[in-house]
C-alpha cells in the first residue's frame, strides 16, 4: 500500500482565493475540526503547548467526538484505493489539527502504514480573532 501524507493547518493562516475564502492545502480529504471539536486551548495549562505535546494530544483525544472522528479517518485511510493526502484544519493549527494529526499518524503506523506528517502552522503564535467566538478564538 502507498504511503500517506497527513497535513495539519490553521484556517486563519491560509492564503485566500479570489472569492476571499481560505484555500486549504491540496488533499484527498480535508477535515475541518473547528466546529467538530472543542478548542483545547481553553484549558489554560496547555495554552502555550502545541499538538506535538502528549498532554495536548490527550486533551484532544478526550474531547467529545474525537475518538469517533479518529476512527473514521483511520478507516478511510485504509480503504483499498485510499487517499494519498489527508489535511486536518482548525482555527490556528496549534492544538486540535496538529494533535489529531499526530494521533492519526500513530494509529496508521500501528496498522502498518507508512506515514509522512507535515504541520504547516503549529509553530506560529496563537491566533486571537474577536469574530471567532464559538471556538475559543485560538488553534
Instruction: State the major sheet.
Output: 4 strands, parallel
Unreliable residue stretches? 130-139
Distance N terminus to C terminus?
33 Å
Shape: globular
Strand content: 15-25%
The arrangement of helices and strands along the chain is EEHHEHE
Instruction: Kindly provide the radius of gyration, computed on alpha-carbon positions and rounded to a whole number of angstroms.
Output: 14 Å
Mean pLDDT: 89
What is the tally of helical segments?
3
Overall SS class: alpha/beta
Give the strand order, joined by hyphens, for the main sheet.
2-3-1-4
In total, the number of strands is 4
Characterise the protein shown here:
With 139 residues, the chain is α/β, with parallel strands linked by helices. Helix content is 25%, strand content 16%. The protein has a four-stranded parallel β-sheet with strand order 2-3-1-4, covered by helices on one side. The longest helix has 15 residues.
Amino acid at each position: 500500500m502507498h504511503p500517506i501524507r497527513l497535513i495539519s493547518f490553521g484556517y486563519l493562516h491560509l492564503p485566500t482565493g479570489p472569492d476571499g475564502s481560505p484555500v486549504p492545502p491540496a488533499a484527498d480529504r480535508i477535515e475541518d475540526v473547528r466546529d467538530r471539536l472543542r478548542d483545547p486551548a481553553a484549558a489554560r495549562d496547555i495554552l502555550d503547548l502545541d499538538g506535538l505535546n502528549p498532554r495536548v494530544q490527550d486533551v484532544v483525544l478526550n474531547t467529545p467526538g474525537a475518538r469517533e472522528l479518529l476512527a473514521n479517518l483511520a478507516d478511510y485511510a485504509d480503504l483499498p484505493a485510499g487517499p494519498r493526502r489527508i489535511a486536518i484544519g482548525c482555527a490556528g493549527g496549534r492544538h486540535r489539527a496538529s494533535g489529531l494529526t499526530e494521533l492519526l499518524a500513530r494509529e496508521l503506523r500501528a496498522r502498518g502504514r507508512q506515514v509522512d506528517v507535515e504541520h504547516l502552522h503549529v509553530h506560529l503564535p496563537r491566533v486571537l480573532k474577536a469574530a471567532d467566538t464559538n471556538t475559543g478564538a485560538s488553534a
